[in-house]
UniProtKB/TrEMBL annotation:
Domain TIR: 72-201
Protein name: TIRAP protein
Composition bias type Low complexity, residue spans: 13-46
Single Gene Ontology BP annotation: positive regulation of tumor necrosis factor production
Region annotation (Disordered) ranges: 1-46
Compositionally skewed regions (Basic residues) per UniProt: 1-12
One Pfam family per UniProt: TIR_2
Length: 217
């Protein structure tokens, strides 16, 4: 009877689950060692990344004295109808007021008095890097606007950023066929469109500078 009572009060052995739990806990690294491993791993990645990182390519200075920008008299020639003069004057004021002080050709302001209209339009196109075509209902009805547009396309037939069509109050179906291979800016918000024009001109002048530098090398 005595040995039977001792057998009943003997402590129970650990369960299989507790053994497994104990075993798995001992087989895993501690939280501190795990975090240190992760830290060293991430450190190694950052070091490797920093060792192969490239220095950012700086944008060329379009205002430098040796910039090909100065090879032409104007950065931008604005082609527009007479009825859109007020809007164009705002655009010219915006571009000329930028830190780069873009040089704009405005026909009624910059054309030489006494010169032939055809001569002035052709000279403006040839002496400008970029041409903004403000395509409005008045533009589509003005033969001189169409003439200047054709001169610009003849000067640079391939769309390389020099011709910048800007649509205002014109349906897409009325977009001139001659410009169908060139993306246009749709003027809904004036301020946003002005910035898009500025950025496009800037992009072209920077690419011009890069090309010039590569040629010299």
């Amino acid at each position: 009877a005595g040995w039977f009572r001792r057998l009943l009060h003997k402590p129970k052995p650990s369960s299989v689950e507790s053994l497994k739990s104990s075993h798995s806990a001992s087989s895993l690294p501690s939280s501190s060692s795990s975090s240190s491993a992760k830290s060293s791993s991430s450190s190694g990645v950052s070091l490797a990344t920093s060792s192969i990182s490239l220095s950012p390519v700086s944008a060329p200075d379009i205002s430098a004295s040796d910039s090909p920008r100065w090879d032409k008299s104007y950065d931008v020639c604005i082609c527009h109808s007479e009825g859109d003069l007020e809007l164009v004057e705002e655009l010219v004021s915006y571009l000329e007021g930028q830190p780069e002080s873009f040089r704009c050709f405005l026909q009624l302001r910059d054309a030489v008095a006494g010169s032939a209209v055809v001569t002035e339009l052709c000279d403006a196109v040839q002496n400008s890097h970029c041409w903004v075509m403000l395509i409005t209902p008045g533009f589509l009805q003005d033969p001189w606007c169409k003439y200047q547009m054709h001169q610009a396309l003849a000067e640079a037939p391939m769309a390389n950023g020099r011709t910048i069509p800007v649509l205002k109050d014109v349906d897409r179906k009325d977009y001139p066929r001659e410009l169908r291979n060139i993306y246009y800016i749709y003027m809904a918000l004036k301020e946003k469109s002005f910035k898009q024009i500025r950025d496009t001109v800037m992009r072209y002048l920077q690419e011009l500078c890069r090309s010039s530098t590569k040629t010299m090398e």
